[in-house]
């Protein structure tokens, strides 16, 4: 037995767990290496399709169909929203749109307004449908905030692997599966984040956006 096998065996004994392999599912989310791939995410999309097809949509009112999509379908995707930038949204969103408008996921309804407008709040003329792409982007922004500014072990580990500096990416042969989603909006978080100058422990005065507060005025 080589050293790596001995190390794995030791970890198994300490943690009382078995030695698995990637990919695997955790809380309904596929865990794998590299960028999200359709082959890993398709089973979840198929689960959404089966659930939509199992409902008797034509016997429900439109608001009833909207409530099912907003609660059950969004619940299916809640965990994966917080981890990956989903590449199957066009397909899943089309099924949800068809179900809401016609009660049949395979039958398109006649739409005279933009889908984003339909998803807007009631007071803005919409139907208050949860926009899956916007929901995913919001969850990813929260993940990126934690990656950029939280003092947790996983951001330190990932930063050491994928960042040369706070503003420069490292060329990585096999990046963590979270990285593509983080990379997409990382510069957005840095650009729109402002620091309130205190001890200057975490602030790069030359590159970061910051507010400087004095007793009588605020300088940006």
Describe this structure as you would to a colleague.
This protein is flat. The longest helix has 20 residues, at 62-81. It has 8 helices and 7 strands; from the N terminus they run H-E-E-H-H-H-H-H-H-E-E-H-E-E-E. Strand 6 and strand 7 form a beta hairpin. It has 2 domains: 15-132, no CATH class; 136-219, no CATH class. The chain is mainly alpha-helical. The protein has a 3-stranded mixed sheet with strand order 5-6-7, with no helix packed on it. Helix 3 (62-81) packs antiparallel against helix 4 and helix 6 (132-149) crosses helix 7 (153-162). It has helices at residues 3-15, 38-54, 62-81, 89-102, 115-118, 132-149, 153-162, 179-192; strands at residues 24-26, 29-31, 163-165, 168-169, 195-196, 210-213, 218-219.
Outline of the structure:
By secondary structure, this protein is mainly α. The protein has eight helices and seven strands; from the N terminus they run αββααααααββαβββ.
